[in-house]
Design goal:
By secondary structure, the protein is mainly beta. Helix content is 6%, strand content 37%. The strands form 5 sheets. It has a 9-stranded antiparallel sheet with strand order 16-17-18-19-27-24-23-21-22, with helices on one face. Strands 4-3-9-8-28-1-29 form a 7-stranded antiparallel sheet, with helices on one face. A 5-stranded antiparallel sheet has the order 15-14-20-26-25. The protein is globular, with a radius of gyration of 22 Å.
Length: 470
């Protein structure tokens, strides 16, 4: 990390999901691909209490201001995302921007026309540990008056079709009531009409009190209902920069998405401990027949295999941190955790067009890729399906490069205005763990006491934050 200036806060931004429209602009880092930058309200201490719609983001370039797309999302006291809380920037709320066209250092007295001066501006400087020459500056303004002409939205949610749409992809979410399964029912890239996905497949055996039940993405609906949990992953926030999928935080940005906020363990049923175990677990993405001809690669299989409904030999170990599927319409990089070689998790891959009556969906497998594990924790530790990044054909971005970026997150320095005192800093989290942050207010439980929770902390966070003070 860079050393903070006096009166500045330095934040490590773990950029593990979702981004802007067509990638970094002309002045972007050569090492990055439209990475999202997510800072907490605590990181923007001088702006605590600001109404979210009074915060705007600008860059200074060639002696002029340009407004850039940004978003402020609210979270409740338990850390869950919500469309409306108190309409004020709190410690755990989030400001989001995407690394694209980059700004330069602005003169101290420079101010966008039409933006009020009732509050000091904040300067966010982003640097890249993989590219020492790189620096991007963003300026945040808190003003009740902001000129018209906000940037166009980069992502949209169509509730009737249950689809998230961007210029790069369309993803359709299953309706548990109508479709009778949980997860994804559509994926298309760059305007192509082909639906590339059959569904996300979930397998496992749920064991409790001597009873066992087979779980799939279909039977999970009833299991969740019995536990008083909602199987819906409808967006709770659909802003112009990102859509938040569920209160626990799946995300969809313009060129990347992560579907679920969590897939956790069952516990504390009815006020008492209930021993629950999920055995022989599997998560996998099964493509459709329209994906035929795509090429699957991972670090264990650099030459790749063709998705064609014919069985292939794909190494089961080690579980890779990245996989890539190159379709005719675009490429999809699947980024998950760095799994130790000692893990009992294994790669799952099945390419077989023969019908299987015991299967779900179209009853066939076309490049069905995922992970298997003997228990839920081992499955969770793989981070699959993690983050999916959409890459156009011909773009010189690789899944291996994107995985390397996750190991070396960007660093953001926040300066300007009074600095809010905080408790001693925590270190930046590793990629395989859920990050923690020293709270600036009394900790609040993140779940409802004595209520079983199935969907909790599954994918690696999109933006984990570690920070330090001078």
């Amino acid at each position: 990390m860079i050393q903070p200036r006096s009166g500045a806060t330095t934040v490590a931004v773990a950029l593990l999901a979702a981004a802007a429209t067509a990638g970094a602009g002309a002045h972007g880092s050569t090492q990055r691909y439209a990475d999202p930058i997510v800072l907490s309200g605590a990181d923007l201490g001088a702006f605590l209490g600001a109404p979210p719609d009074e915060i705007s983001t600008w860059i200074w370039h060639h002696g002029a201001w340009s407004r850039v797309l940004s978003q402020v999302d609210e979270r409740d006291a338990g850390g869950r995302y919500t469309a409306a809380e108190d309409d004020r920037l709190d410690d755990n709320d989030e400001w989001v921007v995407v690394l694209g066209d980059l700004g330069e250092a602005a003169p101290a007295d420079a101010w966008p026309e039409g933006v009020g001066r009732e509050h000091d501006r904040l300067e966010v400087t982003v640097t890249d540990p993989e590219d020492p020459a790189f620096a991007a500056r963003y300026y945040l303004f808190w003003s009740a008056t902001t000129p018209a002409g906000a940037p166009d939205a980069a992502v949209a949610w169509d509730p009737a079709a249950r689809e998230v749409r961007t210029a790069e992809y369309t993803i359709g979410l299953a309706d548990p009531d109508k479709d009778r399964f949980i997860g994804v029912k559509r994926l298309s890239l760059y305007g192509d009409a082909a639906n590339l996905i059959d569904r996300l497949k979930i397998r496992g055996t749920l064991s409790a009190l001597g009873f066992e039940q087979a779980l799939t993405e279909e039977s999970l609906i009833d299991a969740l209902a019995l536990l008083g949990q909602s199987p819906s992953f409808d967006p709770v926030i659909h802003g112009p920069l990102r859509v938040v999928l569920g209160a626990d935080g799946g995300f969809a940005y313009a060129n990347r998405f992560a579907l679920f906020g969590g897939f956790g363990a069952l516990s504390d049923l009815g006020g008492g401990a209930l021993p629950v175990e999920l055995k022989n677990a599997r998560l996998s993405l099964d493509w459709s027949v329209d994906a035929s001809g795509a090429v699957y690669t991972d670090p264990n299989l650099p030459a790749g295999v063709t998705v064609d409904g014919e069985p292939d030999a794909v190494p089961e170990a080690p579980v890779p941190a990245w996989r890539e599927v190159a379709f005719a319409s675009g490429r999809l990089a699947l980024l998950s955790a760095d799994v130790p070689a000692t893990s009992s998790a294994r790669v799952y891959y099945k390419d077989d067009a023969a019908a299987d009556a015991s299967d779900t969906g179209d009853l066939r497998s076309f490049g069905d890729t995922g992970v298997t594990a003997p228990d839920l924790k081992t499955l969770i530790d793989t981070g699959f399906p993690g983050e999916a990044v959409v890459i156009p054909i011909g773009r010189q971005v690789t899944a291996a490069q994107l995985a390397a970026n996750r190991r070396a997150p960007l660093v953001a320095e926040v300066a300007g205005g009074p600095v809010r005192p905080t408790a001693p800093p925590t270190t930046a989290p590793t990629q395989a763990a859920t990050p923690t942050r020293t709270p600036t207010r009394a900790p609040v439980a993140t779940g409802t006491p004595h209520r079983p929770v199935l969907w909790t902390s599954y994918y690696l966070p999109f933006a984990g934050v570690g920070w330090r003070r001078p």
